[in-house]
Automatic annotation (TrEMBL):
Keyword terms, alphabetized: GTP-binding, Hydrolase, Nucleotide-binding
Protein name: ATP/GTP-binding protein
GO molecular function: GTP binding; hydrolase activity
Species: Streptomyces malaysiensis subsp. samsunensis
Cross-referenced PANTHER family: ATP/GTP-BINDING PROTEIN-RELATED, GLIDING MOTILITY PROTEIN MGLA
Family recorded in the similarity comment: Belongs to the GPN-loop GTPase family.
InterPro entries: Gliding_Motility_GTPase, Gpn, P-loop_NTPase
Recorded superkingdom: Bacteria
Length: 196
């Protein structure tokens, strides 16, 4: 079977093909993952939140969570079109250790992860970073600034989280579309640089 010459139609079709990228939005319990995906999704996000009960009080540490009443029990899902050619599918993972089994399935096919961290609870980010590294996912850190949290220099955060020099760090407010979009764009650019 011989090859045929490439036509203008072929070129047009190739340019119109969209690239779908699976991105995980991860972080410790109550860091803002569900809020982040809700802020960024162009479709009504899929949420699997359940009301927290007294039965889980001994399991989920609510210290510093400012009125949290629900928790993700499976995943959050949203979609964001970044350009005519690039669509991100955002998958949010539960933050509690008891849901770690969900991670293995969620990491399949993922290009990378955006790790949300709370600057007041940095030590809670270590198990999440360890999991992302265990599954071999490239990642960026997004410091989710809640009301009244102090700004910390990137170098201080990099040292506290024991990050490699090339790991991107960006700040955001998960409730704010512009800063959240900037966090995703930072991750996408980092992933693009790694493939060059």
């Amino acid at each position: 079977m011989g090859s045929r010459p490439v036509s203008d139609d072929d070129v047009y079709l190739n340019e119109a093909v969209q690239i779908a990228a699976k991105i995980l939005v991860v972080g410790h319990f109550a860091v803002g993952k569900t809020t982040f995906i809700g802020t960024m999704s162009e479709i009504p996000p899929l949420r699997t939140e359940e009301r927290m009960t007294q039965a889980g009080a001994h399991v989920d540490d609510l210290m510093g969570t400012r009125g949290k009443t629900t928790t993700t029990v499976a995943m959050d899902f949203g979609r964001l079109t970044l350009s005519d050619r690039l669509v991100l599918y955002l998958f949010g993972t539960p933050g509690q250790e008891r849901f770690v089994q969900v991670w293995e399935d969620m990491t399949r096919g993922a290009l990378g992860a955006l790790i949300l961290v709370d600057p007041e609870r940095l030590k809670e980010s270590f198990p999440v970073i360890d999991l992302v590294e265990h599954y071999g996912l490239p990642y960026a850190i997004s410091v989710n600034h809640f009301d009244g949290t102090p700004d910390r220099p990137d170098e201080e955060l990099r040292e506290a989280l024991d990050l490699l020099p090339e790991t991107p760090i960006v700040t955001c407010d998960a409730r704010d579309e512009k800063s959240s979009a900037n966090a995703l764009i930072t991750l996408v650019r980092y992933l693009q640089e790694r493939t060059r």
